[in-house]
From TrEMBL:
UniProt superkingdom: Bacteria
Gene3D superfamilies assigned to the protein according to its UniProt record, in alphabetical order: DD-peptidase/beta-lactamase superfamily
Domain Beta-lactamase-related: 36-259
Organism the protein comes from: Brachybacterium faecium (strain ATCC 43885 / DSM 4810 / JCM 11609 / LMG 19847 / NBRC 14762 / NCIMB 9860 / 6-10)
InterPro entries hit by this protein: Beta-lactam-related, Beta-lactam/transpept-like, Diverse_Enzym_Activities
Coiled-coil region(s): none
One family name in Pfam for this protein: Beta-lactamase
Descriptive protein name: Penicillin-binding protein, beta-lactamase class C
Amino acid sequence: MTALDLLADFGFEAAAIVLGPEGERARRGDVERVRPWRSVTKTLTGCGAVLAVQEGRAALEDPAGPPGATLRHLLSHASGCFYDSERTLQAPGLRRHYSNYGIDEAARHLERALGRDYGDWIQERIAQRLGMEGLVWDGSPSVGAHGPLTDLALFAAELLRPTLLEERWHAELTGVQFPELVGIMPGFGKQTPNPFGLGIEVRGTKSPHWTGTGNSPATVGHFGMRGTAFWVDPAADLALVVGTSHDFCDAHREVMPRLADAVLEEHGG
């Protein structure tokens, strides 16, 4: 039995790709099927933002969003914005409030700074350079991307061995922003603390969580409510990309951590 045999435990269609630093190590299922990435889209938006900062087109401390907030606050769910509106729950930097609106507002700020459509920026500066030929950017920068798992695997591989971002900026993207902040992790309850990078989740010591108990605190990634997810563990030098045909549910909460630990056991070390 291999780690990816656990995909059968979902009880519905599922596919996955395991990656090491040299590239793909294993795959199972329909990895070419175009799937909605939903909140996994945020990781591309965050990477595109840091690319713009690296090129001097924007700055993480740019005022953006509600009064007192910056681009950094928006990208790390620390702006105080509600989930889906410009209304605020509290001042920036006090709590981790997961916000699609905040990510979309960050993209609007970047569009003004870049003078161009943000989806075009993502396609040109990330997708085309990494060979993500199936990526469809349709609508919201927080939830709008669609594509095959093979494209998401190319992005996961980029996070494992960066080529687009200099070391300093890769560390900004994947490092914890405002590390002390507490907040609700969608689907997993209150986390103290609740670490996030710039458009990307950082595992930290969250429990319960959708990654494995063996994943390092430095593991980054995201899951989407339409059943697509990925993680990159720099300590294990591994990445896992998963897609399913079912919205995120109890099966994902139960199977995803076991799958992660099985991948780490089979392919780690």
